[in-house]
Amino acid sequence: MIGITPLFKISDRISIPIDLSYIANFRQHYDYGGTVVNENGDSVTGGFLNFTIGLNFSIGESRTYADWY
Question: Which terminus of the chain, N or C, has fewer Cβ atoms within 10 Å?
């Protein structure tokens, strides 16, 4: 698994996290639905790419948050 997760500051209380990850399986006998990939027992290599974007709100009385140090 390898990825990157930058955090973009919009204001002192709002930020946008973005995650991009690639997950690889070097010996895979079943697909993601649980079905056997190859009937003769050989394994295959598989992987998938994941992209996530979010919105963070910081609440509380502090003016500076740990994300911005």
Answer: C
Q: What angle do CA 64, 54, 15 make, to 5 degrees?
A: 20
Amino acid type, 27? R
Contact 36, 30 (CB under 8 A): yes
Residue whose tokens read 């919105």: 55
Residues sharing a CB contact under 8 Å with residue 35, sequence separation 6 or more, in sequence order: none
Distance (Å, whole) CA 34 – CA 37? 9
Tracing tokens 């990939």 back to the chain, one arrives at: 37
Q: What is the pLDDT of residues 1-51, one digit of tens each?
A: 999 999 998 888 888 999 999 998 887 777 778 888 777 877 777 788 999
